[in-house]
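Work Package 3 (structural annotation) set out to generate three-dimensional models for the target panel prioritized at the project kickoff. During this period the team completed the workflow that converts sequence records into discrete structure tokens, so that structures can be stored uniformly alongside our sequence database. As a representative example, we reproduce one entry of 150 residues exactly as it appears in the project archive.
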Amino acid sequence: MWHEGKNPDFRQRVQENFNRQPALASIRAELTRVEQGLVELEMPFSEKLTQQHGWLHAGAISAGLDGACALAAHTLIEPDVFALTIEFKINLLSPGRGERFLFHGEITKPGSTIIVADGRAYALTDGPAKLIASMTSTLMIVRGREDMQG
């Protein structure tokens, strides 16, 4: 069981945090699932986010996975602290070809100072979902910063 009780309003907090992120809005990401320790984002294919071969650009994939992992961390922490990504490693496993993309972020190791999350990105079409990338993300818990919100 995750750290139940730290923030019973974690779904609202994640939604508010998501709503304040212009980077996720710019890739047209949608928040589609929020559970303790898990967040999923989806986005439609857009030619504006492709590389020279017409596949989804690694930067867009990274942004989606980073967003999902960081928001997953916010499901577990107290309302007055924040999680910031301090490192991630991404493996691009297959070309980003699909009609939609799913970014799944899940907490692997919760902590009071450092949280580790794993992410997986899938291309969605009429057939089965295809794994296109994986990420391991390290997030730092920040306390006492009045200049930060949500």
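Residues 10-142 form a domain with the Thiol Ester Dehydrase; Chain A fold (CATH 3.10.129.10).
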